[in-house]
Amino acid sequence: MRVAVLGCGTMGTVHAKSYAKLKEVELVGVCDVEKDDADRLAAASGTRAYNRFEDLLNEGRPDVVSICLPTPLHFTYTVMAAEAGVHVICEKPVSSTAEEAEMMDVICRSNKVQLLVAHVGRFFPAYADAARQIVAGVIGKPGAAHARRIGPHPGLIKNWYNNERDSGGVIMDLMIHDIDYLRSVLGEVRSVYAQRRTLPHLDYAWVTLRFEQGAIANLEGMWGYPGPFQTAIEFAGDQGIVHINSEESKSVMIRQVGAATEPILTTGKDERGTRSSIVSRKSPEFETAYDRELSHFIQSIQSGSQPEVTFQDACIASKIARAALESAHSGQPVNMLGFEVKGD
């Protein structure tokens, strides 16, 4: 399939480099109003640079476009692509408002093109493996989880992040990864409670999610961390825990209550050869999470099959993030049943 990338910033660069490696696609162009950014990325990924989206659509004739623009622009350019008969892979969050998201869905459906939202969290190997282990019952019934996602403030590089109306801050733009992932593992969210503190170039949030099936998750997100970007997540069940930390050499570790004489995974075992600790050590990735995500989306478009992350999943993740913002503002928990965002 012929693919293109709109937006040549951080995420546009990631998408273009992934497409350049995928055998099932041809990268026919990248586009950005900033000519230097478009030229740089085109040279790096072996394709043509455009400065107007209309020219990319008319001359590049893509089948699929990745929209890697600031969130307030997702609606406009998704509609333009759909009306040109081009499938859309849109970076998260799906849109600035629930109303826009609904219109994007309607317009894409009416033009018979697919709209996929890039929640990449589910495609990282450690996260996917943890989800599989939990579904398989390795740690029993999960009762609690803790997720942490922190890094430098993106507003130091791109000013639009500093406008909360545009970016949604750390909750909507960064923590939404963990919101979507935790919901995919633990089910529907019943209530949301959030606390948040902001200073110039600092945005910190702590969000508690209560799930319909009884589990509770605490999510920590921070823009402005004076160190490298890092993530961690832990699930605790009545038979053990699953722990992931990007800063540890042991990227996946599962400890179970009680030991057996053989390992339950072939990826590794502890020094005694028992099943009390299973370790998958870090190694260079031949295929990134973004490679996996975009390849999966392209295959979904080609086959017409349902993607791992559905449009409905993306809308629900955005709704939970908006509920967290409302809770942080009001100081009160938000019941997700019947929750509607003011102004949407």
UniProtKB/TrEMBL annotation:
The keyword Oxidoreductase applies. GO terms for molecular function: inositol 2-dehydrogenase (NAD+) activity; nucleotide binding. It is an enzyme of class 1 (oxidoreductase). InterPro entries: Gfo/Idh/MocA-like_OxRdtase_C (IPR004104), Gfo/Idh/MocA-like_OxRdtase_N (IPR000683), Gfo/Idh/MocA_Oxidoreductases (IPR051450), NAD(P)-bd_dom_sf (IPR036291). It comes from the Bacteria. Residues 133-336 form the Gfo/Idh/MocA-like oxidoreductase C-terminal domain. The keyword Acyltransferase does not apply. Keywords: Oxidoreductase. Its EC number is 1.1.1.18. Signal peptide: none annotated. Residues 1-119 form the Gfo/Idh/MocA-like oxidoreductase N-terminal domain. Belongs to the Gfo/Idh/MocA family. This is Oxidoreductase NAD-binding domain protein. It comes from Paenibacillus illinoisensis.
